[in-house]
Amino acid sequence: MARTRRVIRRKNMLIDQRKLDAAKAALGAETETAAVDAALDLVVFRAEVFRGLDALVAAGGLGTRTRRAG
Questions:
Q1: pTM over the 0.70 mark
Q2: Which of 16, 21, 41, 51 has its CA 20 to 30 A from that of 62?
Q3: CA separation (Å) from 52 to 2, 38, 47, 62, 65?
C-alpha cells in the first residue's frame, strides 16, 4: 500500500468503553486516541496480509500439503 500524507480529522463516535480500555491495554497505548489509531493500523495490515495470501494462493504458491514444525 502506498504511503500518503497523513490527514488527521476530529471524529465523534460512540464506543464501548470496555472494548476501548481492553484495546488500550493490549496495544500498550498511552491514550484512547493512540489505541484507536493502532487498532485501525492492525485492521488495515490484516487486510493487506489477506490480499497477499489470496494472491499467493491464486498463483499456486500454497499447496494442500503442510509440514509440521519440529
A1: yes
A2: 41
A3: 15, 21, 9, 12, 19
Per-residue model confidence (pLDDT) at position 29: 98
All 3 cell numbers of residue 12? 465523534
Mean pLDDT by runs of 10 across the 70 residues of the chain is 83 97 98 98 96 90 64
Is the separation of the CB atoms in 26 and 36 below 8 Å?
no
Rounded-to-integer distance, Cα 56 and Cα 16, Å? 37
Q: Which residue has the cell 494442500?
A: 64
Angle at 27 between CA 26 and CA 33, to 5 degrees: 120
Note every long-range contact of 19-23, with CB atoms under 8 Å and residues 24 or more positions apart, other chains counting: none
Does residue 27 contact residue 39 with C-beta atoms inside 8 Å?
yes
